[in-house]
Design goal:
The structure is a homodimer of 233-residue chains. With 233 residues, chain A is an all-alpha fold. In chain A, 67% of the residues lie in helices and 0% in strands. Chain A is elongated. The interface between A and B is large, with 45 and 45 residues. Chain B binds a DNA duplex (30 and 30 nucleotides) through residues 8-10, 13-14, 37-40, 47-51, 53-54, 58-59.
DNA sequence: CGCGGTCTGAGAGCAGTGCTCTCGGACGAG
DNA sequence: CTCGTCCGAGAGCACTGCTCTCAGACCGCG
């Protein structure tokens, strides 16, 4: 029934090797930092470096695979956390989203840097990354859509510059973004940049000598955004 | 009178060579991307690689020098722009600060990534970087302090979590941060993360397929922050 | 002016990197 | 059982950061 059982032994071994390589690479990333060495990964796998090229055409391809996995892992963690909050508690769901995003970032710092830090040199985000990268955004949109539909959120009548409003109206016609009025979406985008900006600031050391209680600070940011989005008073 | 004239010819040549190396390195950074190669810099300088080590003990040291320069260059640009706005126009000064920060980032993308992207592997921010890195923050604080002193800003009585308030009160005792009430500083920190989060999102491609008019979008963000800070209606 | 020390560039070399290519053996589908 | 596919090993290329040695150029001081 499982996917592996339908595969030939060779193909099975192949996906297992690929998983091992990624596993080791993730470990290196976490321990050694962002300078991932394919040769070092090969050594840890007990194999000569050229063998790894049977599974990944280049170091960039391996990195891309890690990035896709990281996006997926982060999205899984966020969705999992959000799911455990009662559906009616919109603010609670927003908090869960934000908290779990930050927690994931704290526990996977170098992977977070890969996703939200400076873009990697050779690498141009392939199609495979945009879907998992968007999942948390779509989740946020779902919360806001529900809030609007349920009249819990009173859509702000903020004056938006024409081109900005146009962008948000166009976005609202994309699958998963529907039902969120421009005013709400504008505030959501702002909140998003603010929260991930805060996470990046924390992780990249921009708050050193300033903030000491990071947990409390982020919690405060969450409250501010929730209030601004109309999810709480 | 000038600094160079007081130096021996050798020392003069030395500072000139250092400047040339940094110049070439900056160019490589802009053209080739973040993978700066010391050997390539040496080649462009028409010199063998080991010669460069007479001026920079390591690649990291060269990178650090570039980072310090970049912070300084950005701070210069921001201060220059802010200075040209009439002192009484607090909102205008805030806009000038934000706009020039973004413009500098757009014109020096890889250097911006060095400053605000994922931290460089081996490198731990040395003392030399924190002063120029703080200059834009201090400028923002100066604007807000003036606003409060002049009663143009009505300090919000936001309820802040105890540890957060404590942090901001402690910060307010640091030179350059005085005279900014916790409520204002909290909002300033939020605005700061939001603005630099927005700039990073734009530069790192996180807005692709969403925002099309980046200028208008950032201008909108500036308005939102200015309003939230009490600098404008 | 000339001597001695300092500074600087060249060159060779080491260990590491990404990546390519060839070869031989193992595996599995027919 | 055989033939084609797959896979790992090994050698090799061009590159990297960095070290060390050597020789020459420069400059300050006597």
């Amino acid at each position: 029934m499982s996917l592996e059982s339908t595969l030939t032994p060779r193909a099975r071994a192949r996906v297992e090797t690929i998983e091992q390589i990624k596993q080791i690479a993730r470990h290196h990333l976490a321990v050694e930092g962002p300078n991932l060495s394919l040769r070092a990964v090969a050594r840890d796998l007990g194999v000569v470096s050229s063998a790894v090229y049977r599974y990944f055409a280049s170091r960039d391809e391996l990195l891309t695979a890690l990035i896709v996995d990281a996006y997926t892992s982060m999205a899984d963690a966020i969705e999992q956390a959000e799911k455990q909050v009662p559906r009616r508690d919109l603010a609670g769901r927003w908090f869960a989203l934000g908290r779990s995003a930050r927690q994931w970032a704290l526990h996977n710092q170098h992977e977070y840097a890969l996703l939200y830090g400076s873009p990697v040199p050779g690498y141009a985000a392939p199609q495979d990354t945009i879907e998992p990268a968007n999942r948390p955004v779509l989740l946020a949109m779902a919360i806001l859509r529900e809030g609007v539909e349920r009249r819990a959120i009173d859509p702000p009548r903020d004056r938006l510059p024409k081109p900005v409003r146009a962008d948000f109206e166009r976005i609202a016609s994309i699958d998963g973004f529907t039902g969120v009025p421009p005013g709400v979406m504008a505030r959501a985008f702002t909140a998003w940049a603010q929260l991930f900006g805060t996470i990046s600031f924390e992780l990249f050391g921009r708050f050193t000598n300033a903030i000491t209680d990071y947990d409390a600070y982020f919690e405060h940011q969450l409250k501010v955004t929730a209030r601004h989005l109309g999810l709480s008073r």
